[in-house]
Design goal:
The protein is about 20% helix and about 25% strand. By secondary structure, it is an alpha/beta fold. The chain has helices at about 75-80, 100-110, 120-135, 145-170, 205-210, and strands at about 20, 30-35, 60-65, 90-95, 175, 215-220, 225, 230-240, 245-255, 260-270, 280-285, 295-300, 310, 310-315, 325-330, 335-340. It has three domains: about 1-40, no CATH class; about 100-210, no CATH class; about 215-320, Macroglobulin (MG2) domain (Immunoglobulin-like). The strands form five sheets. It has a five-stranded mixed sheet with strand order 7-14-12-9-10, with no helix packed on it. The chain is built from five helices and 16 strands. α2 crosses α3.
Length: about 350
């Protein structure tokens, strides 16, 4: 192919679109490029055509968002604020994957007696490579069996997907969302189900909670905070016409060890006849002068509404409890060295 299509005669791009003269087999000598450039400006046809319309309509901005996982605070914020410029954004692709369960998928093909098919060979090869890595990296010190890694990864997916849905539902700009994807396929692990259409653990619960018409989306940042610092708590109500116009009290709590209420507040939420998909109902900083532990930030309607979501968590660490650390600190590269035996401080 390099000889037939040299770069010198195709300097604009390593590939060009064209056609061969029809025949029993392709003949490179008959290749002719298409006369219209791939870079020729083309009219925008629009993003959708509503029922009954004979014309494409330019009404939404189609967005595909695939940030890294696990999501950082900046990524969560970007999902909460993504927009479509001059048009409202339709998030047509976003999802959370898991590991491809190479062990179970390979065994499925063996059970069916179809080990010779291309997909089965692909998965079997990747499983063999994984098992070699299992031994080399001593993963048996973490999981008792090779298949346990895949099982844990599949269980992890639901929580990560819920985290992303929480941010998306809190975004007032987004007018629609379709997730990626229904099932895993060869070499890709982005599905709600595996290659053999088995639901990944927690998937149904994550979708029920994430897509409920009425949802309380809660945020606590930073997720790990030192005692004496501040944590920012936010609550957003995602409402797809689930509530009638009126006023609704929502109770916010921070619950610590032994179910101790270390923070509580009730906010009144007013629903108008025309309400946005997502509306902030609380935002504020709280000084966390509390003991080291895991803390939950739940919220619920006191009356008039029943919402999914309504909980998140964060962790408080008291630096006084941290052990003494003797370390060498190099200042300015090759400069002087200081030896510290003090406790680590934030």
């Amino acid at each position: 192919m390099a000889a037939d299509f040299p770069r010198a005669s195709n300097s604009a791009d390593p590939w060009s679109c064209g056609w061969f003269t029809p025949g029993d087999k392709p003949d490179a000598a008959t290749y002719v490029r298409y006369s219209e450039s791939r870079n020729k400006p083309r009219p925008r046809f629009g993003s959708l055509a509503n029922p009954g319309s004979s014309q494409w309509q330019d009404l939404v901005s189609d967005r595909h968002i695939y940030p890294r996982v696990p999501h950082t605070a900046d990524i969560i914020q970007s999902l909460r604020t993504a927009d479509g410029g001059s048009l409202p954004p339709f998030l047509s692709e976003y999802g959370i994957g898991s590991a491809v369960d190479l062990w179970r998928t390979t065994r499925h093909f063996e059970q069916l007696g179809k080990t010779e098919v291309e997909d089965a060979q692909f998965y079997h090869d990747k499983l063999d490579r994984y098992l070699a890595d299992w031994k080399r990296w001593k993963l048996d010190e973490i999981w008792p069996r090779p298949q346990d890694f895949f099982a844990e990864s599949l269980r992890k997916m639901a929580g990560q997907r819920t985290l992303g849905l929480n941010a998306i539902r809190a975004n007032p700009n987004i007018v629609g969302y379709t997730l990626t994807r229904m099932n895993d396929h060869v070499s890709c692990d982005e599905g709600l189900t595996t290659t053999f259409r088995e639901l990944k653990p927690g998937t149904a619960d994550a979708l029920f909670e994430g897509f409920a018409p009425l949802r309380l989306c809660l945020f606590a940042e930073p997720v790990n905070v030192y005692r004496g610092a501040r944590v920012r708590l936010e609550a957003v109500l995602a409402n797809e016409d689930a509530l009638a116009p009126g006023a609704y009290p929502v109770r916010l709590l921070v619950v610590g060890p032994r179910n101790q209420h270390v923070f509580q507040k009730t906010v009144n939420v007013t629903i108008a006849k025309e309400s946005p998909f997502a509306a902030p109902i609380f935002a504020g900083g709280v000084v966390v002068d509390w003991a080291s532990d895991r803390y939950r930030f739940p919220a619920s309607f006191e009356r008039g509404g029943t919402a999914t979501g309504g909980a998140t968590e964060f962790y408080v660490t008291d630096p006084v409890e941290m052990p003494a650390v003797k370390s060498e600190i190099v200042l300015a590269g090759n400069g002087p060295q200081l030896v510290s035996t003090n406790r680590v401080r934030p």
